[in-house]
């Protein structure tokens, strides 16, 4: 159910994206309290992006979940995902935005239906 969609202007050529996907998936599942079997992570690199008027390494993310999000969880998720991006892709924490969406099951399609 939770889906973390990350876009960055950093090239992913030569980057171990599997490590990023795995760490992000485990982190999202743990912090939201959902089974990892339902977590989806999307990572897009080399996306044309400007932040603060420069094209230095930056990233934008959106996390959608059916429940499990609140101000405390969101702070932890923001810190954890920023740390992953900083460690794995050298995107400074100050150059990353993460938007949270807590949605109803009827607004989330899966397996040919909705939740």
UniProtKB/TrEMBL annotation:
Organism: Musa acuminata subsp. malaccensis
Highest taxon of the lineage: Eukaryota
Gene Ontology MF terms in the entry: phenylpyruvate tautomerase activity
Pfam families reported in the protein's UniProt record: MIF
The protein, known as: (wild Malaysian banana) hypothetical protein
One cellular component (GO) term of this entry: extracellular space
InterPro entries attached to this UniProt entry: Macrophage_inhib_fac (IPR001398), Tautomerase/MIF_sf (IPR014347)
Family classification: Belongs to the MIF family.
């Amino acid at each position: 159910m939770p889906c973390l969609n990350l876009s960055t202007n950093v090239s992913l050529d030569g980057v171990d994206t599997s490590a990023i996907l795995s760490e992000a998936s485990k982190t999202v599942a743990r912090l939201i309290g959902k089974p990892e079997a339902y977590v989806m992570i999307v990572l897009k690199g080399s996306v044309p992006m400007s932040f603060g008027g420069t094209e230095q390494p930056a990233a934008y993310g959106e996390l959608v979940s059916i429940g499990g999000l609140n101000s405390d969880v969101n702070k932890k998720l923001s810190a954890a995902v920023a740390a992953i991006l900083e460690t794995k892709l050298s995107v400074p924490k100050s150059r990353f935005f993460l938007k949270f969406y807590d949605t109803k099951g009827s607004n989330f399609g899966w397996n040919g239906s909705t939740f």
